[in-house]
Amino acid sequence: MGEVFEQLPDPSCRNGLDRQAGLVFCPAPSLSNVRFAFQCDYATRDDALPPADVLEHCPLVRIIWLSDE
């Protein structure tokens, strides 16, 4: 994740819920219809993102394309 974003945590990123727990979802920089999913597996409370030093090492596991159709 540290290779994609200059500043962590990025305020537009969100934790996955339920079956997507352990993932952090972020909009791709400069691409409005693409989302990235990073595998973090870090327990947090109240939907807070993991700390920056953890996020920096979370690998990209999915690229999600959002269709306008």
Brief summary of the model shown:
The protein contains one helix and four strands; from the N terminus they run βββαβ.
Describe the structure.
- It is a single chain.
- With 69 residues, the chain is mainly β.
- It has one helix at 52-55; strands at 14-15, 23-27, 34-39, 60-65.
- A 4-stranded antiparallel sheet has the order 1-2-3-4, with no helix packed on it.
- The longest helix has 4 residues, at 52-55.
- The model has no long low-confidence stretch (mean pLDDT 90).
Question: What is the topological layout?
Answer:
Elements: E1 14-15, E2 23-27, E3 34-39, H1 52-55, E4 60-65
Antiparallel strand pairs: 1-2, 2-3, 3-4
End-to-end C-alpha gap: 29 Å
Give the amount of beta strand, in percent: 25-35%
Tally the beta strands.
4
- Summed up, the helix count is 1
H-E string: EEEHE
Residue runs with pLDDT of under 50 for 5 or more positions = none
| Mean of pLDDT | 90
Spatial strand sequence of the major β-sheet: 1-2-3-4
Radius of gyration, whole Å: 12 Å
Structural classification: mainly beta
| Overall outline | globular
